[in-house]
Amino acid sequence: MADYSTLATLDLALGKHSSSNWLTVAISDLNIFCGSKSMTDEQIEDLADFIASEYKDMKFSMMQLFFYRFKRGDFGKFYGKVDPMVITCALKDFVEECAKKRDEYLTEEYEARKKEADNARQALFQKWHIFFAEFMKEVKEEDKDDLSGVCIEKVFELDNCIRIETTKDQYDLLEGVYFNTFSRLFQKIIPGISIQYKVKKPSPEAVKQQQDSNRNIQQINEQNISLSSAKAVIDNIYDLPKDGITQMRNVFFKRYGCTPEEYLKNNHQTNH
Question: Is the pTM of this model over 0.70?
Fold first, then answer.
């Protein structure tokens, strides 16, 4: 798994055919070690060129390991008969074994990192609960219910960041009235972590309820203004002359379709 040069890298660094020249020497040495007389010099050179081309992405260190293990007898005993096909078949088995070992290593490494990440996430959530409990102690009673549902929505381990999901009202409180308190306690209890906000969009039902509520409030305000205007005309609170009062009564009648007295009578029950 170490970062060693490949055969192709050797050719780039030391010149063309550097890897095949080294392979020629290594195969000749292997031939002598096995006491084989079945491979000619031409076969050795052709085999070296083939391996250098076919396995150019193999690390130089792995190729060294292959020849060592071949000499150790890991690919069988050949009793003096070692030819190019024996070596290429053994090399193929070696490559498959390396790939399997690499997959095992990566799986173990992934599991270890996953476990480490899970432990870090769990520790972060525990710190969040401690932080939020301390924060809520400093929140006004009238705001506790509004803020009680704030929680972590997602953790970004690589960025050392958490994302919390809030409503618009919760966001306004955290970034407004309680910004200093929230920031101070967060950096104290969960240092080195940043925050992203995910502000939830209100549901269609909530939007409709808010719109209905706004309309009701607007209607009540308009009615209160109308009642105040009717009383102002009747009581002449501005001390207007007779012509001025007559003009105001005409404007009122044109606006509401009745006299101020009739308006107060018709809306008496509503007003109370």
Answer: no
Instruction: Let me know whether 15 and 78 are in one domain.
Output: yes
Domain contains 246: yes
> Which residues is 164 bridged to in the sheet?
152, 197
The contacts found for 166-174 with CB under 8 angstroms, 24 or more apart, are 166/197, 166/198, 166/199, 166/200, 167/199, 167/200, 167/202, 168/199, 168/200, 168/202, 170/146, 171/197, 171/199, 173/143, 173/146, 173/147, 174/147, 174/150
Average of per-residue pLDDT values in the chain: 86
Tell me the pLDDT tens digit for each residue of 112-134: 988 988 888 889 999 999 999 99
The parent domain of residue 42 ranges over 7-82
